[in-house]
Amino acid sequence: MALPPPRGPVTEALIAQLTGPEHAPMGELDQAASDALAASEDLLVDDDLQLALFLMYELHYGGLEGVPDTWEWEPRLLAVRATIEHEFEDALRQAIPQPVATRDVPEALFALVGAGDDGPSLSVFVEREATAGQVREVLACRTIYTLKEADPHSWAIPRLHARAKSALVEIQADEYGGGRPERLHATIFADALRGAGLDDRYGAYADHVPATVYTSMNLMSHFGLHRRLRGAIVGHLAAYEMTSSLPCRAYANGLRRLGFGDDVTDYFDEHVEADAVHEQLAARDLAGALAEDEPEVASDILFGAAACLEIDGRLWGGLYEQFERGESALRKPLP
Description:
This protein has about 325 residues and is mainly α.
């Protein structure tokens, strides 16, 4: 991924650090992060801090253009990241009520998902009203996660055992195309981007998308990269799969209404059927099995699910509200 322009003093100092001499002092970045955390009114929508955290996490994925791979495990950089992560998780736990722990985690997940499905949605708006331009903005916002779809949840595979591990691998195998590279979900989404006249390069719209896109991605990376939060990443995946099938059907219908071809709708059509199956698999065989095998992480499973619903609800609900006001959802127009 090419480095995007900075969004404030933290990303400015971070990018300078990553592209400068490897052993240069890190005092400026450390101070910028401390100052920004102290001054931030809401870390969950803070452009500068969310982009900075995203870029540091990106070192564990495909990397950053012009940045040596040795930065991935640089202790001084990890210390700065840990400072931001601590405040990020604290903000999440303050913003998201902890669901009541229960012995029946699958049923609690279904209740949690059902309780949040009571208002107007972006997918219904796309199905019935959105313009082609608005749909392209939605697709641009999806690029940050979907062009590497499933990767954050894969961090959990070596941290699970027996039934839960098997269920997660089954889900992820589908996400990665079942052995067919051309059916990787990230690949068919790239096809959709090209069919819609958009750039399919990862990070092409990094400077266009709002902070909430990075908050959503950082949530997954934070849960996935910390073994102590393995329950949360499982709960996140369960909620994600349980709320995907019907919206994808609506997106596909909206794309057809606007005249987009099969190359664009294929990604969403694929998820209508796949995620209907994954819903039961994720709730019962993955989350349910993990809760039975490790009861001590049951509360984190529900927290991860609640976090997924809340943070993604803010992201896509925010886009919907901007479209309803006749505004763009992006920080700057698409090229």
